[in-house]
Each structure stands twice: as structure tokens, then as C-alpha cells.
Amino acid sequence: MHLLTADNCSSMRIDMSDIYGGFWYAEYEHFYIGSADTGYVLEVRGFKGNASDAFEYQNHMEFSAMDRDRDISNTHCAGNYEGGWWFSHCQHVNINGKYTLGLTWFDGVRNEWIAVATSEMRMYRRPGCS
């Protein structure tokens, strides 16, 4: 992902459905993943969507995996939820873990969690970027 985003011309969109049949999306105009030397740090900005900007909690976090705990939580998020992600604390955004352990997206506007049933994450080139 670092090589795909290295030219700073990438955007990203996440589409989700919740367990109640609702549909949510979060789109970031700027999406960048750092190199291995940075721990594959996440950088996003330019949010729009109806899912709230939950990635604000993940921004500038290194990628955590089951064998590499890089989150700031007292627990090992990737290990506990059985999936790698750019965790800060375990539950603000967790759409890449074991489904039965709970996939979530934090809605800071309503101060509640969206119980995610499905999610799709897509990167694309920003229009006008050469």
C-alpha cells in the first residue's frame, strides 16, 4: 500500500453496512501509507461521509499486527481482535478483525458505535493528479 500511495495522489473510501441494515460511508481526499521504516503509518485528511470521521483517532498510527503491537492501548488490539489495523485504541475503527469479536466504527457525532456487518475499503487516484 505504501508504494501505491507514495506519490500523494491517493484517496480512499470505505463503504459499510451495519447489523440493522443501515449504510454508511467515509471518504478521505488524502490517503497515504508510510514506508516500512515508519511502521506503515496512516495519514488521512479531507473527510466527507455519513459515518463520522472515526479515522481521526487512527491518523498517524502505525500498522499493528498480531506479531507487532503498535497501538497506544494498554491491550494488544490486533491480537485481541485477530486482525491487523492502524489501531490507536481497539474500537474506534475495527473493520478488519474477526467478525464474531465485533467490527466497529465509532460515530463521534452521536457518541455511539456502529456495529459493522460488512465493509469495503477502496483506494483510488485523485482526479487531476498526474
TrEMBL record:
Q: Which InterPro entries match?
A: Fibrinogen-like_C, Fibrinogen_a/b/g_C_1, Fibrinogen_a/b/g_C_dom, Fibrinogen_C-term_domain
UniProt-listed Gene3D superfamilies: Gamma Fibrinogen, chain A, domain 1
Give Gene Ontology CC terms: extracellular space
PANTHER family tied to this protein: FIBRINOGEN/TENASCIN/ANGIOPOEITIN, PROTEIN SCABROUS
State the SMART domains in the record.
Answer: FBG (SM00186)
Question: Mind telling me what this protein is named?
Answer: Fibrinogen C-terminal domain-containing protein
- Which species is this record about? Heliothis virescens (Tobacco budworm moth)
Judging by the UniProt lineage, the source's domain of life is Eukaryota
Domain Fibrinogen C-terminal as annotated: residue spans:
1-127
